[in-house]
Design goal:
The complex is a heterodimer of chains A (759) and B (51).
Chain A: H1 24-30, E1 32-33, E2 38-44, H2 51-62, E3 67-73, E4 78-84, H3 91-98, E5 103-104, H4 114-141, H5 146-180, H6 187-206, H7 214-243, E6 252-256, E7 262-266, E8 275-278, E9 288-292, E10 295-298, E11 309-311, E12 316-317, E13 322-323, E14 328-332, H8 340-351, H9 353-356, H10 361-388, H11 391-405, H12 408-427, E15 430-432, H13 435-441, E16 446-450, H14 451-455, E17 456-462, H15 470-480, H16 486-492, E18 505-509, E19 513-518, E20 521-527, H17 528-531, E21 548-552, E22 555-560, E23 562-566, H18 570-579, E24 583-587, H19 592-602, E25 606-608, H20 613-625, E26 630-633, H21 640-645, E27 648-652, H22 657-662, E28 665-667, H23 674-708, H24 714-737
Parallel strand pairs in A: 16-24, 16-26, 24-25, 26-27, 27-28
Antiparallel strand pairs in A: 1-2, 2-4, 2-5, 3-4, 6-7, 6-8, 8-14, 9-12, 9-14, 10-11, 10-13, 15-28, 17-23, 18-19, 19-20, 20-21, 21-22
Helix pairs in contact in A: 2-3, 4-5, 4-7, 5-6, 5-7, 6-7, 6-11, 7-12, 7-24, 10-11, 11-23, 12-23, 12-24, 13-23, 15-16, 18-23, 23-24
Chain B: H1 2-27, H2 34-40
Classes of the chains: A alpha+beta (759), B mainly alpha (51).
Transmembrane segments (chain B): 6-26
Pfam family, one (chain B): FixS
Organism (chain B): Mesorhizobium ciceri
Chain lengths: 759, 51
Amino acid sequence: MSCCAPGAEMALDLVNTGSVLPSSQEIRLASRSLGDDLRQTDLSVPTVHCAACIEAIETALGMLDQVESTRVNLSTKRVAVRWRGNQVPPFVAALGRLGYEAHLFDPEVDNKDKTLSELIRAVAVAGFAAGNIMLLSVSVWSGAEGATRDLFHWLSALIAIPALAFAGGIFFRSAWNALRHGRMNMDVPIAVGVSLAYAMSLYETINHGDHAYFDASVSLLFFLLIGRTLDHVMRERARTAVKGLSQLAVRGAMVLRGDGARDYLPVGEIEPGMLLLIAAGERIPVDGKVSRGTSDLDCSLVSGESTPRSVAPGEAVQAGVLNLTGPLTIGATAAAKDSFLAEMVRLMEAAEGGRAHYRRIADRVSALYAPVVHLTAFVTFLGWMAATGDWHRATTIAIAVLIITCPCALGLAVPIVQVVAARRLFENGIMVKDGSAMERLATIDTAVFDKTGTLTLGQPRLVNAGSMDPGMLAVAGDMAAHSRHPFSRAIAGFAAPGARHKFDTVTEHPGFGIEATDAGSTWRLGRRGWAGWKARTGGEGKHGYGGTVLTKDGLIVATFNFEDALRADAGLAIKLLSDAGVSVQMLSGDTAGACGEAAEMLGIEDFVPCLLPSGKVERIETLAKDGHKVLMVGDGLNDTPALSAAHVSIAPATAADIGRYAADFVFLRESLLAVPLALDVSRKAGHLIRQNIAIAIVYNAVAVPIAILGHVTPLIAAIAMSASSLLVIGNALRLQSSRPSSPVKNVRRDRRSDITKLA
Amino acid sequence: MTTLAYLIPVALFLGALGLGGFLWALKSGQYEDLDGAAERILIDREDKIGR
């Protein structure tokens, strides 16, 4: 990793804390068989950036035994490794030695993107047809007559057939789907317009008429498909980036059989009563009870508690918590499908109702627009019938009205703005799941934050380092370097560089602390009651974390106070949200004391501590009932139901897997400024969408009377349609150039270097 | 008029050739990794092992 600066996907320093490499059993479980003893494993490697990275990885992995081939995909930042044999080649370790962090990828998500290739193929066919028909049409407009014109019309009709069948199929299917369910969407007027235009043009061609609209119907499809493809590419890109993050859920566990044999079983096959071995650094796969060993557990992702909990035999543990310090043997008390995680998924599905009712702006507009347009065309037909009695002329003019009002600009107005907005967010490390998420975010008036892991990092920070004897701090720092306990990590940051304290032995006592000996004295760093066995201080420290001390031969020589470190820019982000007219609340599963401190530091007046997952959902539902549109920002498993209950939701990249999938937005950088930025961009996008729709309607107001009076020729239709589309696209691109007006522009630009382009 | 008889088929054929080429490239996976393809030009082929 000498070559490139870290990019958007890389600002994930906090993910790695406490995680261990996937075991070879886990890799085997996640690989997919290609038959003939050949297996393929997909790894996500977020830090690949250039040719040198590709070469280093492909060369290093190619040199491993049993590896058949390696292929790096730079666009999706994945590595596909094909290997043979029973033994899993150590490719994750090999990547680690090169400095690349790799995450396992689920094999089932590797399906090729069928929709995208269908869309691109449709764009290609429609583009080919539109280009050729336009060429023939230009000759007709410039004066081709008689047999030549008929020939050109026939050729156009022929070329249009594959375009209608292939490219139009996408719209016809969608329109039919909507109509069958009694709904209306943008595709209904498109499908009606295109097919009627084709039918009438065919009739004209057969009867040697001079007006054919083949060009209009095919170029309409072409324009709309471009918008639709860009929209799809944007969502796909976000989806891939989110999926490439490290998986925090467990795939399997080492099961200890009665006869002493050890098997690595997938989570789904673990049954109650089995004994599981959980090494330090692993997550607990199912609910269980500790039967041997003591350790500290990091529950922050599960319950929102920021202080690690120490467990001893006999205590219950929940699925999803991270085992920090010592190996544990637990007896499973529930299968995976009855565990805490599954319970969260059920709560989440139950809460999903609210946002499913949201209807996209485009659909709402077209529900009003389509009937008006169709009625206008029909009335035009009746009017001309009554006036002239010439049914052929009446039909021609009515269809011209349909073509001129076909919502080309309207169909582009929304997706183009959203693609531009999503790209701006993407460049700032924010992934958007779909366009409706931006529409919903623009409407919120209340933001609800989770505390641990969202407003704070869930990592303690030493607060009284300045008032401490530097010598003692250095000793403690050197001892703490031997442990992965969050407190130790916080202290280890203060170890004196260079001057290492010489210890004879260092041992970690899970659940208590670290013991070290040097030159006849015993140092202990850990719980007050354990480390200071001779001290008679009694009483815990004032702070929530006050129990950690350093002792020499049983006498306390230093006391450590911790607080949960705030996420970068949390205070500024909250202030910006308040300035934007959004009221901010905090809901947490943590204790009242810890919540109060965080709320005070951030200036949040409204907070509720000690909430269960269902409690969070209830709070959000109450807010929704009072007519608020709620944004939920959270990361834990316990936030997941709330994420899907809220009107719109945002999760950091460090969130639990199902939380990340439930959230509408995922931000990859550490800074919480992502939240006000997403709100700002979404609101601007909503503004532009409304403007674009207004432009499209004004255009119609001008064009429709001309069409009703029967003055529209194919040439006028083609010019009017292209002009309105260009106008709408140009207006959407204004979002790209407009820079945020608020201090959001202070987003740390130095952390990224790659400007990611949308296709 | 007679020039049209062969010019139009020729034009359509060339267009169809381009379309066919694009669809073939799409199908054979050449659009799967656009960024990677741009960077791979910098890698010397002799150094590659295992492919």
